[in-house]
Structures are given as structure tokens and as C-alpha cells.
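F.,

This is the one I mentioned.
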């Protein structure tokens, strides 16, 4: 099984964003403080984590062999013609 790096990154940002949102809602602010940085920072982190997680679940994490992709086939052909690649052993 191959793990897409977007999944753990997304989960990490989701959890940390949720924690900051909770802290931003619970901790009282003074009158002279700027907008609630914990709340807004947590919301941004949560949104980023959600996007990363969704993209990680939706995308494919498998690497394709060079023989399976059009770009890889072209590179293999160029290397074969220039002598950089040896014949396969099979």
C-alpha cells in the first residue's frame, strides 16, 4: 500500500486547526487585542487540511512505470536510440 503524503498532512492540519478554533472560541479576548488570531488561523489551517485530505483521498498515489505513460515511453525511446539504455534482460 502506498501512502499519499497529502493524507497525513491534511489530518495534521485538520486537528491543529480544530484545536485553534476551539481555543479561539473559549479564551476571552481583551478590548485592545486585534481580531481573534487563534480563531482565524485555526479556520485557515482547518480549510487547508480539509483540502489536502480531500485531494489525497480523491487522487492516486501510485507511481506509473515508464512503459505505461506516454511521457515515459518517449523518454525510453530516446534513451534507447542514444545508447543510454541497455536491452532488458527478460
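My design for it:
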Amino acid at each position: 500500500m502506498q501512502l499519499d503524503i497529502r493524507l497525513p498532512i491534511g489530518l495534521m492540519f485538520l486537528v491543529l486547526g480544530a484545536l485553534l478554533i476551539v481555543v479561539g472560541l473559549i479564551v476571552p479576548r481583551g478590548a485592545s487585542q486585534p481580531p481573534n488570531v487563534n480563531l482565524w488561523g485555526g479556520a485557515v489551517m482547518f480549510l487547508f487540511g480539509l483540502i489536502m485530505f480531500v485531494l489525497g483521498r480523491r487522487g492516486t498515489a501510485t507511481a506509473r512505470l515508464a512503459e505505461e505513460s506516454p511521457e515515459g515511453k518517449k523518454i525510453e525511446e530516446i534513451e534507447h536510440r542514444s545508447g543510454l539504455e541497455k536491452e532488458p534482460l527478460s
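The two ends are 26 Å apart (CA to CA).

Talk soon.
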